[in-house]
Amino acid sequence: MLKYAARRVLMLVPVLLGVTFIVFSLMYLTPSDPAQIVLGSNATPAAYAQMRADMGLDRPFLAQYLHFLFGYKHPEFGYRGLAFGDLGRSYVTNRIVFELILSSFPNTVILAIGALALALAVGVPVGVISATRPYSTVDMAFTVLALLGASMPVFWFAMVLIYFFANRLGMLPAMANPSNALSLALPIVTLSMNSMAIIMRMTRSSMLEVMRQDYIRTARVKGLGERLVVRKHALRNALIPVITVAGLQFGHLLGGAVLTEKIFSYPGIGSIMVDAIYQKDTPQILGSVCFVAIIFTLVNLFVDIMYGLIDPRIKTAVQSGRKKAPGKELADALKRLFRK
Amino acid sequence: MRSSASSGSKPLRALARAGRNLGQFWRRFSRNKLATASLAVVLVFASVAALADAFFDYGFVTSNQLDNAFLKPLESGTVYEGEAELEHRYLLGADNYGRDILGRIVHGARVSMVIGFVTVAMALVSGGALGALAGYKGKAFDTIIMRATDILLSIPTILLSIAIVAALGNSFFNLLIAISASMVPGYIRIVRASIITVKDQEFVEAARCIGASDSRIVFKHILVNIASPLIVQSTLNVGSSILWASSLSFLGLGILPPKPEWGNMLSEAREFIQYAPHTLFAPGLAIVVTVLAYNLIGDGLRDALDPKLKR
Amino acid sequence: MKRSIALIAALAALGAQSALAAGAKGPALKGRDPDTLMFVLGGPCQPLDPSIYTTLNEAQVMREINEPLFGMGIDDKFFPVLAERIPTVENGGVSKDGTVYTIALKKGIKFHNGNDFTADDAIFSFNRILHHPKSSAKSMFSAIMAVDKVDEHTIRIHFGKLKSAELATVAMTSWADRAKNMTPAPYGPALNILAHFCSGMEDSQTVEAAGADYGTKIVVGTGPYKFVSWPNPQEINVERNEAWWGGASTIGFKKVQFKTISEQPQVNNVLMTGEVDIAFNLSKLDFSQMERSGVVITSMPGVMIWYGSFNMNSPLVGQLRDGKLDLTGKYETLDSTNLRNAIFHSINPVPFIRQVDLFNGAGVPANQMMQPGFVGYVDAPAADSPIAQFKEKSWYFDRAKARAYFDKLSPAFKAKLAPECVVLATGNITDRVKIANNIKDQVKTTLGVDLVKVVPMVGSQVTQMGKKGEGYDMIVTGWYTPTMDPDYTCIIFNGESIGTGMNSALYNNDLVNESIQKGRYSIDQKARAAAYVAAQNQLMADKPYFPMVNEKAIFGTHPRLGNLEAALFKTKLVDVHKLTRKF
């Protein structure tokens, strides 16, 4: 088991490197002149050239990439590099890039946790109910509702919510702020819709799969009440892939809260990233996107390792190396299908 | 024992088998009423979209008739075509420029269909090819491709799309690239997993014993194995592709007004949610209904095609 | 089941009741601190360093923290702020030739950190505006030749102009450079620039000590509010300066939070729910509904002019003959001149003003490249002036004329006119794109060919293109004149501005340039007016620009705010410290 975990951690390094490379290349290709952004539009061409040289922008691509990773020495524009969590100051706001990232990230985490909690709190019970009455009217109704959640454009749904709850009813504020708990209600509901749908479907299929297993039939034959069967035996095993999906969803929520944060003017890392991209604020973009990607990869890794620890079938399967346990195969297949 | 190898009747028998499978599949699928209804909806939308020009003139839905701005659904207004003055009834109302919302939705449906199918096709071909390479050749190819997939999956999709469009420029083609990029990893994994599973299985050994050629067996079995998850995934992806396109238009990337596209219609209508809600609800519902339909179809397909889930 | 229905019904009733109650006394405050004023900004702020950063957003904040020497009231008259009195020729503050201003500074004024405000700080601030590499207000203050210290509380400002036109491209990075390249000259807008927020006085000690952190972590001034914190890009907090020289008791609100909300519809939302107190970037859409929910809408003539430019370098709409700009005043009528005129007369900005989601009535059609109310604005055009053709209801729009010009095009030229060949670039802001699309539509309707292609792009890119004059045929943009003086507006069409991106038509007419010089280097208001009138007439004859709309300044405020008449300016800036609490 430890070897499995260690191997996964080792594979992290090339993945993270690849992420930084792709993001850096995209920013390199983007037409913008950082010297312009810093000096404004009124400086002389000589001043721009000097600024570009000072910022290290006249070096070849690979040199700039290495600077980005490991640091750039300069009295005014120097920084220690992504590896040390220092990318200097933003071109536009003149603040230290990572300071802004680290102060806004916790806000997004609050939203993500709230959204995931809501998604689980609603998705799991609804999924279980659906699974115990497959193909009935209730099941169809829940299916439509769940898929509805995954079919609406996020920003549209947010605007509709604001219209009804903030403007019409005046019950909830239209702007969200981490200091005002009530204001978090609408953004959390908006953000949770997609995950709720996925978790609900996942719970349903996982439950259906588990309920077909032999040991459930045995329990029923033994004379245990249906509810007990469901709760004790089926649910626990069915929930394992659900938890995995929930863990993966957390990563998506962290990176995907962008539109929600924009609509609600919420000071999380999503709005920082979008603003930075619009203003072509390269160090801020690079820092934020790489930061989120790294966190996301770490969350995935954590979930994978935890999954391996929790499910004893996996442990043995992994140890024996070859055959995949049935639950894991289903979980993998469904994970693949729901990955967006 | 090559008893079944008479070449003459093989294609006929293959056809018959396919026909039977199709019939079986259709029976299972049609039991799911939601999915069948959604299929009908999608077919109707697709035909309306294809025949968009017959319903509404493209020039008409992209030019301004400012005097008719914000007419409510079913209201009429005067419209100028060249020198003539006509009375036009706006079935779903008019937007802020006085353009017919229903007309824009119909033309936008065409754009959405194109985006949906082209991006899925692009992702399917590239993802499938890469997945096949990874699964079939294995070793170095496999590691590199899987790592590349992991990398792509680590970057939040919306940021990747924004970054791609920002870097490459704001054109229709770049929009397609940005959207299909996020779908490629899914296809790589499906194809690769299917190939690996088939490679291991015992019947390949058995088939080899009989003497059937290696690649033909593997190919046929892979295809059978792959077909269902690919079909399901693609259907779901068409829906999410339409959603992504609308999100990107909302952010000002992708297809811009006055070209009709559901996402930019929403973006334009944003400010009028209090003043003229019909401008926001109509295109929003169009997106929701379409994407929901695709999701329900995909759901139904998965149920119908999954050999394990028996009723 | 029944219980949950009852619960939902109760909640709905409560909600309905609160909605009704809200309408009664203005939007509820939603449990926020009544002593804090919530001020909405339209975009994120750059660092709060008035010498360097100049956009409208941080201007609102900086004006409360850093004060200039003078101020301009809503009556367009100057009054002293950090100076003792207004210098005039009569009281000896201005030298007879108008080139030297001797300014006595108020005594006993302290910065928020206790440091004294002295002449050294004033000189430091001017030096920073003119010579700091990142400063964007350089050109506005470029007429300042030198600033001397007379004593601890008196300074002398020398105004001048460049010795020769070629020196315009030379970068001046120190007082020595300026002394070398400039010669004394009177400056018409002298007091205007000294009343501009960019010349807000900074504390030399603090700015130098703080280095790169000044403006974001450390901000110090003499003003009625002092900087408290800037926790994230969307929120700036300031609080009342109890030791303000102007009297802390006159400052209505103890604390102010400046919150950035860039989506206009959201601004309207939060005004109506009562979550904010004041905003100037509202969506103009449904004022009647806003007023019904208690929001107070105030509108006044503004200083923002929306206009478009024709690239004189463009072979399609420009004025290039044999590769050179031909604008001597008596130029040849080329095919491109005719096309330019054809497009000009196809446009009609009046429907834009009516358009509900664009100006919604908050503007007047502009007939010249100058804001009304400024010195030199042509109020009553002479009969032979091109401005006389302007009509209130239809601007210069004339379908027959447009088609006539279009028909005059030579067959060879017409053959080259493919659909969407005229590139109309504009900043990526909703309103600008709407205007651009309207123009495209109008040209298509009038001329029968869809000639215009609208290309939205990032604002800085537009400026970049405007520097070289490449890649576009037309641009739609706006110009905002915070100094309330025509000289600043003239930057748009001054030949000197070519290469800076602000003269996006690359227009260079000798008569106009001379008029601008005359207007700039004189303190005789009548002479200035005459010079600017001449320039305007020439501009509307050449048509390198088409002025469209003079936008009104509109504010939305919570009914609890008082003293609006004294605090709201037509520059869209607000004297926040003058706002009071009515309840």
Strand content of chain C: 15-25%
Q: Percentage of helical residues of chain C?
A: 25-40%
- Total helical elements of chain A: 15
**CATH architectural arrangement of the largest domain in chain C:** Roll
Outline the biggest β-sheet of chain A. Answer: none
User: What would you call the structural class of chain A?
Assistant: mainly alpha
Order of helices and strands of chain A: HHHHHHHHHHHHHHH
Question: Can you tell me the overall shape of chain C?
Answer: globular
Which residue ranges of chain A are poorly predicted, with pLDDT under 50 across at least 5 consecutive positions? 320-327
Number of helices of chain C: 18
Detailed description of the structure:
The complex is a heterotrimer of chains A (340), B (311) and C (583). Chain A has 340 residues and is mostly helical. Chain A has helices at residues 2-29, 34-39, 45-54, 61-70, 97-132, 137-151, 154-168, 185-211, 214-222, 226-256, 258-263, 269-278, 282-310, 312-320, 326-338. Chain A starts with a helix and ends with a helix. Chain B has one domain (32-57, 107-309): Orthogonal Bundle (MetI-like fold), CATH 1.10.3720. Chain B is built from twelve helices and two strands, in the order ααααββαααααααα. Chain C is α+β, with helices and mostly antiparallel strands. Chain C folds into three domains: 27-42 and 224-295 and 558-581, D-Maltodextrin-Binding Protein, domain 2, CATH 3.40.190; 56-206, Dipeptide-binding Protein, Domain 1 (Dipeptide-binding Protein, domain 1, Alpha-Beta Complex), CATH 3.90.76.10; 302-548, Dipeptide-binding Protein, domain 3 (Roll), CATH 3.10.105. In chain C, the strands form five sheets. In chain C, strands 1, 8, 9, 10, 11, 12, 15, 16, 17, 18 and 19 form an eleven-stranded mixed beta sheet that branches. In chain C, strands 4, 5, 6 and 7 form a four-stranded antiparallel beta sheet that branches. In chain C, strands 2-3 form a two-stranded antiparallel ribbon. Chains in contact: A-B, A-C, B-C. At the A-B interface, helix 1, helix 6, helix 7, helix 8 and helix 10 of A face helix 6, helix 7, helix 8, helix 10 and helix 12 of B.
